[in-house]
Structure formats: C-alpha cells, structure tokens
C-alpha cells in the first residue's frame, strides 16, 4: 500500500500513525512538509517551499492567498512523485495551511483523509468569548467566512475526516458531520505515566524538586490570552500569598499562536507581568521557555497542580498528558475542557475569568494533596479509557484507513 502524509510541520498529528504504516514492509510511505525533515524509519520525507507572489490581495484574502500558494507548491511536488510512479492509495493530510487543496486533482483515485482541527464561528466560540478584548464587528464576521474558505474546499474534496474532540467536530457545518469521525491523536500512556522517582532541578537555585514539593505547572505553546496567561498571572500573587513555598513553573514561548498580537515591541507575558508585578517578579515564579520533551515529562511528574486555561478552542495535548501522569488539573470551565474533566471527579474546573477562583482551587490542591488522590487516579483512568494511543486511538485511525481504502492494514499495540 502506498501512503502519502501531508503536514506543514510533519509529523504533527501523524507522528504515531506514520510510524505504524512505515513499520510494514508492504507499505511505501512518503511525507510532504515545509519543515525540516524528521527522520522516521522507512518514511521518505520531501520538503517543499512556496514563493509568495508579489501581489497584494484583499485584506480578507491574505490567508487564502497564502493557502492557495502552499497548495500549489505541494501539488507541484506531488506531481513529481507521480512522474516517479508513486500513486498513493491513501493520503492523510492536515488541510489547515492549504497544502491539501489540490491533492485530489493530482491523485484523483487516492482516498483523502483530512485532520479537521477547527472551524471558525462568529459567535459561541473563541471570537466573542473574552470581553477584555475588542468584540468582533461585522467586518470581522465577513473575514471569518472567508477564513473558512480553505476548510470548506477541503471538506468538499476529502473522502473522510477526523476531528479530535466532540466539541471541535461540532463546530463544522452539519452537512459535513457524517464525514467527520471523532478520533483523538492519542496519548502514549506507556510513556506518559507517574514516576515517584522523578525530579527536576532549577538551574537558578540548584534546588531539586520532587513529587512531594508544592509545584504548580502552567504550559502553553506561547503565553497568550487564548490560553489564559492574563488570568493565570493575575492569580499568582494570591496563590503565593497563601502558599509562599510554592514553586510556579511556566513552560512556553513569547510568540503568538492564536488570536491578536500585542502592541508592537511587547509580548503578552511581558504585558501582564508588568501589570501584576511591576519590576519585581517573585523569585518562585519561573519561565523556563520551551524545553525538551523528556524534561517536560519530568516536570509534569513532579507537579502537584497543573493549570490549563483556554478559550473555547482547540484542546492542547499538554492537558491530557498531565492527566495521564496522574496529575491534578485545574482547568477552565470551557469547551472542550469540560468534555474531558468533570469537576470534582477527575480534576477541578475554574472560571476562566476569575483569578480568585483559580487561586482558591490551586491552593486547595497545594494545601492537602491527599484529598485529591481519587481524582488523580480518575484522571489517569480517563486517559486510559478514551485517549490511550496504542489501545484506543491508533487502532481507530488504522481501522478507518483500512475501511476507507478497502486494503489490508494491520495494527498491534
């Protein structure tokens, strides 16, 4: 069987699925990406690039213009593969950046399975959620409709789709829901699990932290309002006033992944740090940047309380990973967090907009960790039952691909 993966930052969501397919000598696996090639055994990774045309489209069309050019770049490389005799039976693609737009034109007989991450809505979702920022106006609504154009084109072209949470799936137009399967990317629970012997060392103080310490973790790809950095930092003084021995460790960068950018020359983290602490940040609030995965996992294993806040938007892997190690997550009472965490049963939910409520929940966990042992065990069990990579999610992905192509595909955990 011939399989083509397409993802701007391959492997992305296909990290595990690509390895499964490539492990069989009966399969030929190729990946197209714009990122630096990643070495996965038996996967041929081809990097492509696009040259933006020197034209100025309508402001609403800027994203679509880039997506079309990326789609054309991908199609160009795909046609080169066809000239070499590579005709995939199956294409697994993340269409969000445009790369999948013309794949069915190049390979009309291939089955196209798209990862559908998010469909933008002008109300009831991320756009009108946070009153601290300017509410969307009618022009913003027009722009959102155009922003969905690439997604709609790919929904029309795809033979089937997957979406990782029920809430994310439900954002898509009802006409396409029958073609969108609910399958999460999965968490490798064999690796992501509790370790009583885990430790991390704070370089600035040479202090070693273990699972018995009052460690609070906060993880974002980038620190920004979409992931609640403003609410979290406003809660920190209240947490430290009651728990002065707490060590608050934040992982992430200062770019912007989602939503508006801060004023020129600023970062969202810097803006809210200045608002809350002036020029005197507390010594036990540490920002460690983006760290290697092994260290990140150690950090989750020593964390007594993990905070995860988000607008109604895409669910981060880090929240499920924290639950998988048996962590106590204090998460925002927003979708799709509420799809996973039941307040008081496998974690705690907090008002996204209330630093006071967040501080109360975190301090309760720090003060009496034994009180929440049942919730920690339930958190791990939730991930095992619903999001386990090898026994739940990967088999579902493989079975879907097998049914889609009608070709034999085997998978064993």
Task: Briefly characterize the structure.
The chain is of the alpha/beta class and 413 residues long. It has helices at residues 15-22, 62-83, 103-106, 138-147, 149-157, 166-170, 229-242, 268-277, 293-302, 317-324, 337-340, 355-367, 373-386, 389-405; strands spanning 2-6, 28-33, 43-47, 90-93, 111-115, 160-163, 180-182, 200-202, 207-209, 215-222, 247-253, 285-287, 305-308, 329-332, 348-350. The strands form 3 sheets. It has a 7-stranded parallel β-sheet, sandwiched between helices. A 6-stranded parallel β-sheet has the order 12-11-10-13-14-15, sandwiched between helices. A two-stranded antiparallel sheet has the order 8-9.
How does the SSE layout of this entry go?
Layout: E1 2-6, H1 15-22, E2 28-33, E3 43-47, H2 62-83, E4 90-93, H3 103-106, E5 111-115, H4 138-147, H5 149-157, E6 160-163, H6 166-170, E7 180-182, E8 200-202, E9 207-209, E10 215-222, H7 229-242, E11 247-253, H8 268-277, E12 285-287, H9 293-302, E13 305-308, H10 317-324, E14 329-332, H11 337-340, E15 348-350, H12 355-367, H13 373-386, H14 389-405
Parallel strand pairs: 1-2, 1-4, 2-3, 4-5, 5-6, 6-7, 10-11, 10-13, 11-12, 13-14, 14-15
Antiparallel strand pairs: 8-9
């Amino acid at each position: 069987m011939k399989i083509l993966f397409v993802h701007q930052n391959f492997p992305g969501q296909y990290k595990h699925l690509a390895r499964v397919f490539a492990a069989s000598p009966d399969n030929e696996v190729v990946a197209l990406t714009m990122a630096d090639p990643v070495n996965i055994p038996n996967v041929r990774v081809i990097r492509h690039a696009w040259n933006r045309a020197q034209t100025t489209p309508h402001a609403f069309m800027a994203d679509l213009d880039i997506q079309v050019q990326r789609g054309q770049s991908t199609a160009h490389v795909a046609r080169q593969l066809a000239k070499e005799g590579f005709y995939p039976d199956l294409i697994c693609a993340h269409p969000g950046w445009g790369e999948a737009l013309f794949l069915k034109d190049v390979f009309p007989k291939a089955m196209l399975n798209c990862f559908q991450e998010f469909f933008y809505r002008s109300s009831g979702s991320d756009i009108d959620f946070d009153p601290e920022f300017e509410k969307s106006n009618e022009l913003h609504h027009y722009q959102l409709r155009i922003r969905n154009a690439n997604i709609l084109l790919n929904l029309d072209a795809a033979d089937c789709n997957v979406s990782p949470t029920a809430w994310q799936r439900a954002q898509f137009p009802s006409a396409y829901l029958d073609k969108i399967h609910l399958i999460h990317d999965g968490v490798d629970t064999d690796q992501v699990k509790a370790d009583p012997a885990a430790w991390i060392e704070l370089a600035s103080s040479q202090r070693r932290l273990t699972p018995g310490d009052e460690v609070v973790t906060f993880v974002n790809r980038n620190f920004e309002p979409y992931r609640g950095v403003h609410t979290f930092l406003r809660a920190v003084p209240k947490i430290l006033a009651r728990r002065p021995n707490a060590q608050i460790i934040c992982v992430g960068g200062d770019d912007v992944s989602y939503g508006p950018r801060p004023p020129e020359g600023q970062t969202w983290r810097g803006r809210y740090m200045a608002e809350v602490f002036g020029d005197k940040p507390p010594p036990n609030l540490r920002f460690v940047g983006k760290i290697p995965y092994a260290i990140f996992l150690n950090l989750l294993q020593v964390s007594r309380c993990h905070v995860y806040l988000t607008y109604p938007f895409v669910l981060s892997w880090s929240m499920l990973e924290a639950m998988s190690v048996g962590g106590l997550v204090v998460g925002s009472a927003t979708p799709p967090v509420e799809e996973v965490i039941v307040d008081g049963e496998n974690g705690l939910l907090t008002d996204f907009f209330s630093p006071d409520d967040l501080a109360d929940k975190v301090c309760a966990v720090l003060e009496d960790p034994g009180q929440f042992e049942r919730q920690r065990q339930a958190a791990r069990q939730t991930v095992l039952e619903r999001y386990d990579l090898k026994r739940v999610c990967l088999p579902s992905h493989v079975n879907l691909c097998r049914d889609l192509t009608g070709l034999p595909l085997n998978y064993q955990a």
